[in-house]
Amino acid sequence: MPADMLPLAIKFPSEYFDAKATLECGQIFRYERLKENSYLVNSLDKQCLVETLGEYTYIYAFDKDYFFNFFDLDTDYGKIVSRLSGYPELKAATQSGKGIRILRQDLVETVISFIISANNNIPRIKKIISRLCRQFGEEKEGHYAFPSLGKMYAMDFSDWQSIGAGFRDKYLFSTARALYETDILAELALKRGEDAQKSLCSLSGVGPKVADCISLFGLHDLSVFPVDTWIFKTCRTEELNTAAKVRAFYSQRYGEHAGLAQQYVFYAAKQAGAKE
DNA sequence: AACCAGGTGGAGC
DNA sequence: GCTCCACATGGT
Question: CA A20, A25, A26: angle at the middle one, nearest 5?
Answer without folding.
Answer: 125
